Structure formats: C-alpha cells, structure tokens
Amino acid sequence: DLESLGGEGEQTALALVEREDEILSRLTEMNASPLSALNSLRDMANAFEVDRAHESQPLMPLATISVTEDMATAMRLHALGWKSVYHDHLLAHGMAPEDLGSSLQQRLRWAQGTLQVMLRENPLVKRGLSAAQRLMYFATMWNYLSGFANLVFVAAPVAYLVFNERPVHAYSTVFLWHLLPYIICNQAMFMVISWRRGKKNNIPTWRGQQYSFALFPLWIRATVTTFANVYFGRPLGFVVTPKTREETSTAKMLKLVWPQIATMAILLISTVIGLVKLYLGTAPSIEGTWLNVVWVAIDVLWMSVVFRAASYRGYEAHKS
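Given the sequence above, the corresponding structure tokens read:
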C-alpha cells in the first residue's frame, strides 16, 4: 500500500494522476477520440447517399390539403418549376384492391381528394403552372363531376320512352353532324394515348371508360361530400384501403352497386314501355323510339361491368 511505500508511494500516485490527466487530454483531441470513428462512418455513409436533401427543402412539408396528397404535392412540384417524365417500364409491384368493396372505397377517396384540391388550390389560378399544366390538372379534377352528366345520360332515354319528352330538340341530321365528329375524335384520342411504340398490343382503355361511366353514383357522392367537407367542415369518413381481400358473397357485393342495378332495371322497363307504345301506335316517333332503345342498350352495356366486378375473386383466383 501507499503507507508502506512512504514518499515513493505518494510520487507514484501523483504520477498516475498526471498520466490519467494526460490520457483524458489526448482523448479530447479529435484524432484520438472514439467520436472520430463515428465521423468516419458518417462520411462513408454520405459517400453512398443518393438523395438530395438540399433540393428537397422547398418541398417540405408535403401537401396536407387533401386525402390524395400525392397528386396535390405533384401539382405543387410543377408550380415550383420541377418537371416530370412518364416512364413506361415496370419498376416495382404494388398492392391493389382485390374485391369490389375495397375498390369502391379507394375510388371514393381518390375522387374526394382530387375534388378537395380543386376547391382549395384550383390549378387554373395557381401561380407557377404552365397553361398546359393548368388544363391537364383541371381536367383530372373536373372529370369527377361527370357523375351528374352521366345521370342525365341515363335519364334522357327514360324521359323519351316513358314520358315522350325529347332530350334534344334539334333536327336529327344537324344533331348527328355535331355529335359524330365529337365521338370519333374522342375515341381517336384514346387510341393515340394508348398507343405503345414498338409494342404488339396497345394499352386497353375500354374498361376504364366503362368503369368511369358505371361509377357515376360514386362520383356524385364524392362531389357532395367533398363540397360539404371544404365549405361546411363535414368529415369525409376517411377509410384506408384494405390490403387483404374481404371474403364475402357475390350477393353482398351486389348490394354495394344497387344504384347501378336499379338504374339498369329502370332502363329496361322503359324500353319495354317504349316498344309497347310503338306497337300500339302511340309512340311520338318510330326513329326516335329505336334510337333511344339503342341508347338504353349502350347504357346497360357500360353499367353491366358491375356484375363482373362483384363476382371477382381476386388476382390469384382469376389467374388460375
């Protein structure tokens, strides 16, 4: 012990204390500190880093004005001068709804979120967007208002066949000369958009048009609820899209699309009434009756897709 060593022990103790002070002093220097190893690891990680934090600062935080924050943020990106490029190659697989109920929830949320952006940050008056960007964003948004137009489209033949009310007051030739070019140009546009250079098959667009028309009750609901949310503070009833398929019967799924089924029933009943009136000679016009019968057939064909959607059993079952 130090007492037995006497003076030598005291000198040894002082030497040890001085040695400890020297070691602590050296550890405070960066080149000898363990912290330098952490700094080296950080520098190594930064060498492999591919993000651009300094460029992402103007984007933060993400748009929170809508339940479809991706579209709202993309519009803000374009307004800040960023550009986007369509990449027609499969880079990753994602999950999609595998039953009608989940799909309707997802489509409703998309419609509500898009309309929220239109009512809160209308692209037509948003600074920074080009004229083309304003039109394209607005076309995406106001497309969900088509539910009301589709309602008129299915009500028109009913009004004629049942109540003898002509939906269009114009000479047939003049009307067709205005209608046919529009229909032809519209379908030609879809063909051009869906054309894939160097591919054997184009991207099919018919099913998308069919669903867009058949879901008109959902678009009307989205418009009404979004208007109430933005201007009166009513909750949207946000629902996250389920990631697994809901095991349920086709009958239960058909209840989700009862407005479409009821509409098809009314259209078919109207057709029977119109043909009976034509047989009895009380129809306002033979040509008009047959034209509206064809009109009904087109409406029913478009909306009949809900039966296939209700009986869908998921990707794996469909593939097998």
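The mean pLDDT is 83. Try to locate this feature in the token string yourself.
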